[in-house]
Backbone:
């Protein structure tokens, strides 16, 4: 542990904050136009406050210690907002890197003793580099997490086709697990009520596989639809899915047909509809 | 139209349409059943539609009661259709494993009446 | 109707028929106030209906206690009675346990399927306590 940093005093002055903000504005590209003055103000102010607090403990080395927790929290917030606003990782790192530059400048201005200056700049530099690295890592992690969530969310929507009066179809896609099947069941039953669908076609052509628990949920969905007076027709069962159903010894209790088109033809018969060619 | 244990019973054509209003406690459910069966016998109708649209919970007791209504009605030569089951109730019933017995679920009143007419006129 | 804040606990005495309706209606409202969707509300209300009825018809009456779970991420319901207890608890829990109409089997097994956690303690001659919990679904985004 080093002796008390003399330069620490100067960090509390307004000069540091102003200098830093100037550097940020001057640095990375046009994306900084996305940030409001208020946001910049708040972030830099909060950071400096917590930074001064943290180094006040005398620990200039280990950012994993509790005294740095508040500061790290702020950096996580900064990272998260940069992800949302579409900044690049480098632009995000610029936030902390320009702080280092600002600190160096202030130290140079205020610390007279060249030996002290050199050592304190070094200590601060190492510390701020660690914080910079932390910001970068958090940014990357957060961005990956959000991209994954967005992909998952897309997989959760179950688009419905209003095929005809009283006839709806759900071509399911992606990975079907019990959670998704439960959500689909609710959507399907609500759609049955809304559209007074006497027949619901559930097309599994794009579903590669299903586990037994999900298969059970599918059977429950079919039965719930039946209790509401709607007939579920399952189309496009792949060999892999068929295997699971057979292995379960399950009786889907629904008409199963090869593809969506056959399902529609069947539904038309049930509804008493006929497709007739226009005579020329 | 008659009230019975918190339900309305209408006669349309050759059928009765019974609509329980909201949650019936056990005693009311039994009174409903007794009254309904009495009316079925009295009116000699060929079909019954039970509209479950106002029921927010079907537990094993209610399931059993509906099943008993259906069984007794069948013995009297009356076919039973049900309409209006709410999605959340349908899902819950299926997850619980509750069966309603020999009832024919239809999507709405029109389809239920059409079904009952076919049952009566048919075969 | 009283408000059911997250912090509160709701108790319903189960002494007669109509109390079963009250217990499940309150459970539904409480669940809604915690943020449960309509299907979960119905699952919870139905489970309460089953167990409360058992407490009444087999336990001679009892009490239902509804509260938010300790971590505030779900619901906890306790239904107790001081009745004769349930002999052969394992058999009673089996789905489709053949029993006279109004028997216990379907109710217990069914309620268990609707909830995330289900514990039952029963001592012959002392009484029965059923504790059930349901978790709020975790949010996928936002």
Residues:
């Amino acid at each position: 542990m080093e002796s008390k940093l003399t330069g620490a005093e100067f960090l509390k002055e307004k000069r540091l904050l102003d200098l830093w903000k100037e550097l940020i504005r001057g640095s990375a590209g046009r994306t900084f136009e996305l940030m409001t003055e208020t946001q910049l103000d708040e972030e830099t102010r909060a950071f400096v406050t917590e930074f001064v607090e943290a180094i006040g403990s005398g620990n200039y080395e280990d950012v994993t210690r509790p005294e740095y927790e508040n500061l790290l929290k702020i950096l996580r917030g900064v990272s998260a907002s940069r992800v949302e606003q579409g900044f690049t990782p480098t632009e995000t790192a610029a936030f902390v890197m320009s702080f280092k530059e600002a600190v160096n400048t202030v130290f140079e201005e205020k610390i007279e003793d060249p030996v002290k200056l050199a050592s304190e700049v070094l200590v601060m530099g190492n510390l701020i580099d660690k914080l910079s690295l932390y910001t970068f890592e958090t940014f990357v992690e957060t961005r990956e997490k959000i991209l994954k969530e967005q992909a998952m969310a897309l997989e959760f929507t179950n688009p419905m086709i209003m095929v005809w009066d009283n006839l709806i179809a759900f071509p399911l896609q992606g990975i079907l697990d019990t959670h998704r099947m439960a959500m689909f069941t609710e959507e399907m039953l609500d759609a049955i009520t809304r559209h007074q669908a006497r027949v619901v076609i559930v097309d599994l052509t794009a579903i590669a596989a299903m586990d037994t628990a999900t298969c059970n949920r599918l059977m429950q969905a079919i039965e719930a639809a039946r209790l509401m007076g709607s007939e579920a027709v399952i189309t496009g069962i792949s060999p892999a899915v068929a295997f699971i159903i057979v292995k379960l010894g399950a009786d889907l209790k629904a008409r199963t047909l090869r593809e969506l088109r056959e399902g529609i033809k069947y539904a038309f018969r049930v509804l008493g509809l006929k497709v007739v060619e226009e005579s020329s | 139209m008659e009230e019975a244990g918190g339900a309305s019973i209408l006669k349309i054509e050759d059928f009765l349409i019974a609509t329980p209003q909201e949650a019936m406690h056990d005693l009311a459910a039994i009174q409903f059943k007794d009254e309904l069966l009495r009316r079925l016998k009295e009116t000699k109708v060929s079909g019954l539609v039970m509209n479950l649209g106002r029921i927010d919970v079907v537990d094993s007791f209610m399931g059993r009661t509906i099943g008993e209504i259906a069984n007794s009605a069948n013995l009297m030569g009356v076919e039973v259709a049900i309409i209006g089951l709410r999605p959340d109730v349908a899902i819950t019933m299926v997850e619980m494993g509750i069966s309603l017995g020999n009832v024919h679920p239809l999507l709405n009143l029109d389809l239920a009446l059409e079904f009952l007419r076919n049952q009566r006129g048919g075969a | 109707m009283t408000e059911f804040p997250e912090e509160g606990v709701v108790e319903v005495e189960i002494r007669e028929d109509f109390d079963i309706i009250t217990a499940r209606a309150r459970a539904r409202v409480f669940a809604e106030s915690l943020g449960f969707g309509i299907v979960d509300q119905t699952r919870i209300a139905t489970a309460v209906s089953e167990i409360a009825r058992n407490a009444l018809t087999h336990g001679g009456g009892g009490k239902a206690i509804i509260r938010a779970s300790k971590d505030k991420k779900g619901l906890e319901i306790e239904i107790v009675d001081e009745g004769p207890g349930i002999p052969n608890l394992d058999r009673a829990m089996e789905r489709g346990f053949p029993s006279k109409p109004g028997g216990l089997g379907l109710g217990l097994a069914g309620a268990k399927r609707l909830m995330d956690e289900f514990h039952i303690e029963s001592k012959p001659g002392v009484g029965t306590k059923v504790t059930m919990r349901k978790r709020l679904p975790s949010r996928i985004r936002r």
